[in-house]
Amino acid sequence: MPKKPGKKRNRADHSEPTPPPVITANDRVLRHYAVLNDSVGYNSGHGLMFVGEKEIERAPCLAICHDKNSAQFTLYYCDKDWSPIGIASYDTVEAAKRRTERIYPGSSACWTEAKSTEEDAKRYLDETFLQVALKLGALVHVGTNFKVSIWRGNQER
Length: 157
Hints:
Blueprint: E1 27-35, E2 50-51, E3 54-55, E4 61-67, E5 73-78, E6 84-90, H1 93-103, E7 111-113, H2 118-135, E8 138-142, E9 146-152, E10 155-156
Antiparallel strand pairs: 1-4, 1-7, 2-3, 4-5, 5-6, 8-9, 9-10
């Protein structure tokens, strides 16, 4: 199982921050991610991305994933633990990066190409699904596909 994303670093630790999970929500695979450092600006009043009625504020982390059911790319504006706080869809990776550069000047230097594959994503989802199922008290039969039977009393769900 991958390490928990978003591990905090102390000031003496110069290692790279932990990348996001290999997949997020309904995406095929993680393509790029960025941890925005102190050199990255923020254009207040940008009017380019809103969460509800409010303009998105400074997000410390960004991820671009390839959508599972279309040719679109999803840009995730994330908190320091890689939990999404805003989501937008683009036709290309480059379009998503251009948008973030307009909101966060200097962010283009922070992007890292993810090394994950679609097989990594499938494995991550399978492991995550198994952990959730076990936490729910599910009886899981592992084969070529997962089958989950949750026993409550005498009823299988």
